Amino acid sequence: GYAHNNWEWVTKKLLEKGHSKNNIILAGLARDKQSGATGAYDYFRDRIIFPIRNNGQVLGFGGRQLNPGQGPKYLNSPTTPIFRKLELLYGFPQALSEMKEVGSVTIVEGYMDVLALHQQGFKNTVGLMGISLTLEQAKGLAKYTDRAVIALDPDEAAEAALGRLKVEALSELDVYVASIQTNRDPDEIVLENPAEWEDILGGAEPIPIYMTDYLIDKFTPNDPKERRNVAKLVMPLINTVSDPFEQAGYQEYLADALGFTNYRPNPKCPHCGKPYYGASK
């Protein structure tokens, strides 16, 4: 749908149909006028509108800007009694069947991305309505699949990855990160070349490995102190991994990537994350 470039178009139409101003505001479709003025103004203006559904019901809306510079690129309904963004994923009902069949879900940022990917056959795709996967969203996904791939541009992917290991541990969802090394959005990539999108997903990495590669590429550490600084950023992530064998593998990957050729995880305490430097035997 489309929200008119008008401050009161939706509000007036709903008032004419007998809805009260308070209910229109409560539904997240309008806001009270400020500075003592009476009435309300439309929440969405001059945007493409996407209904956000769950269990067959429309709970809220997402709006994508048409003219850059006029507010945020994506605008979601505010929190209402039935719309809680932190618990919902755009396109989830449509992706559920494919998600269960392939045993994996792909998570992107935008509504247009989800639509284009579904049209090109990537039907296990959902949209974050932001860049951060919440614990509530992860727990919802973990009921149907055990693997999630977050596909964002490098900086957004890194930001999203930093806080996701705790979510992963608490939700029992294995979270991978696929970095989009281009200025194009997923919808542009998949419409131009679906095979390129498959390659991006195929390069997805566990969060500690992704962050190791990302930080080394970003800071290009050349001496032991610089490499130590990268290690200090990655080790807290690795330490949140509960499985001792998985944790030891990430420690070894970090050591090899930083050139600490004699580093090995402490064999007496593989789960504690304490650094142990000694020649391998």
Please describe the biggest sheet, giving its number of strands, its sense, and whether it closes into a barrel: 5 strands, mixed
- Helix content percent band: 40-55%
The neighbouring-strand order within the major sheet is 8-7-9-10-11
Distance between the termini: 65 Å
Low-confidence stretches: 267-281
Estimate the strand proportion. Answer: 15-25%
The helix-strand sequence is EHHEEEEEHEHEHEHHEHHEHHH
The Rg value, from CA coordinates, equals: 23 Å
CATH topology-level fold name of the largest domain? Dna Topoisomerase Vi A Subunit, Chain: A, domain 2
Proper CATH architecture of the largest domain: 3-Layer(aba) Sandwich
Provide the domain count: 3
Shape: elongated
SSE class? alpha/beta
- Annotation field: number of helices: 12
Structure commentary:
This protein is α/β, with parallel strands linked by helices and 281 residues long. The chain folds into 3 domains: 82 residues, DNA primase DNAg catalytic core, N-terminal domain (Alpha-Beta Complex); 112 residues, Dna Topoisomerase Vi A Subunit, Chain: A, domain 2; 75 residues. Helix content is 42%, strand content 17%. The strands form 3 sheets. The protein has a 5-stranded mixed sheet, sandwiched between helices. Strand 5 and strand 6 form a beta hairpin. Helix 5 runs parallel beside helix 7 and helix 10 runs antiparallel to helix 11. It is elongated and about 75 Å long. It starts with a strand and ends in a 23-residue tail after the last helix.
